[in-house]
Each structure stands twice: as structure tokens, then as C-alpha cells.
Here is the input.
Amino acid sequence: MTQRDTSGTQRSCEEPSVYTPRRYLMCPPAYFAVTYSINPWMDPAKPVDLPLAVAQWESLRDTYRALGHTVEELVPDPELPDMVYAANGALVVDGRVLGARFAHPERAREAAVHREWYRERGFTEVREPEHVNEGEGDFAVTASWLLAGRGFRSSPLSHPEAQEFFGRPVVGLDLVDPRFYHLDTALCVLDDTRDDAVMYYPQAFSPGSRAVLARLFPDAITAGEDDARAFGLNAVSDGRHVLLPQAAVGLFEPLRERGYEPIGVDLGELLKGGGSVKCCTAELRG
Ligand code: ARG
Here is the structure.
């Protein structure tokens, strides 16, 4: 580990970034299946190889643990095949938990399972939200802001609700491509101790939101269509290691140039439900 660069400039490749141990919540895909379609990736006619999905998921979990992170596990429910996408269940910042409210009835019951888990774990500030929000699917956390997606799932009304609950300014971003229906399919925060380290796919956003992103993140890594379609933005960073789908080959070099260590993983079976690394990983902050 090296000392953090506080000068505000981008790191160079000789300067590996620091990382901090994280606490993640994941849900084993024991009952994962594509039985309905609520995003363009889901095709119930395409078979899922469940043992392979489980092996891929376990390898992601074990990689986190090998890096020194803590992974907690939710008990899967046989009637909730999308529960493996644990990032959608809540947003946790400073130990405060904003529960989810799902846009589609197929996933509605997941919200209570997550809230219950947090209450049992001793989190005292657990809010049942008024407005539809799909947790970390549409909220990303930088050092001082919440970036918040809208357009397909989370209601724009969930943004002021989150701002009020967390006391952090919310930057609303309009998603316009149905393939990138959650913010975390189109943008990833690479270092949450700063406000300027993200990678994203510009075409997933409206022209105005693209201009906002360019203004806030002039040094961002911008992904091309192929890497976005490989779910390369659906990545998890601990500040140094960036776990991302290995098929997103175009992102590895730009990440290395900025001092990150990209780690490719294969979650091909989970992609059939419209999710990858980040979707499977909720972060418990504070
Ligand atoms: N099948 C799930 C859905 O459409 C996938 C969720 C992916 N999760 C995410 N954080 N993007 O809701």
C-alpha cells in the first residue's frame, strides 16, 4: 500500500492506489433462474446452468475474501430467483440503511428480507422508503455525493428522499438505454475517498446527464459499447482492486494506467438475468 495522493491529480501507473477492507453482502444463487423478463437481457427461453452460476458466484465471493474483505451472506428464498442481485436490496452509507422498493412486483418481497437482515444485524437506522428505489442498482457513492440513476427503475422522487435521509447531495442522472436500466450497469465509482474517480458509458445517459458527467468527472475512464455490453461498468472497486467481467477487455489497460489493479471474473450465467459483479454485491458502509 502507498500513501494516498492528496494533490487532486490523477495517479500514474507507478503509483498503486490504496485500498481499504470492505464489508459486502451477497446472496447465493441457489434458486437463481430466469422465469420472467424485466430487462432486455432476460430471456426465459434461454436455459441457465445453475451449478455453473453457483460456481461463478462462489469464485467471486472467494476472490473478495482472498483480498481481505468480509462477505456476509443472505439466505436465498426459493420464490425470489433474482435475490442473487443483492445490490438492489438497500443503500447503506455511514451505517444508515435506506431500504429498497422495487419497481416490479416479481422482486417486491426482496425489500423486506433485506430490511429484516439489517435490523437483525443491529443497524438501528433502517428506513422503509416511500418511493421506488432499487438500492445500489441506482445509487453510487463518492466521497461526498450520491450519484443517482432514474429513467427505468428508481423513481426521481427517491432522489430527494435519499438526500434527506443521508444528508448528502444527490446528483440525478437520466438513463436512456433500456439495456443499461440501472446506474450500476453504466457507471462505477473507482475510489470512494474522492469525488473524481469513476468510469462510465456515456451513451447510456441523456445528453444533459452526459454533460453533467463530463463536468464532474473530466478525467473519467469512458467505456465503449463493447465493454459496456460485457457489463464492464458493473464492477466493484475497493480503491485499488477493480473486479469486473473479464470480457470487458478494453477497460483493463485504462484502469492500470490510473494505478488500479483490474481483476477479471466470469459471471456469464448471472448475465442472463441482466447482472454481473456489482449487481451481486451490496456494500455495507460504516
Ligand atoms: N434481473 C434483475 C432485475 O432486472 C437484475 C438486477 C441487476 N442488478 C443490478 N444491481 N443492476 O431486476
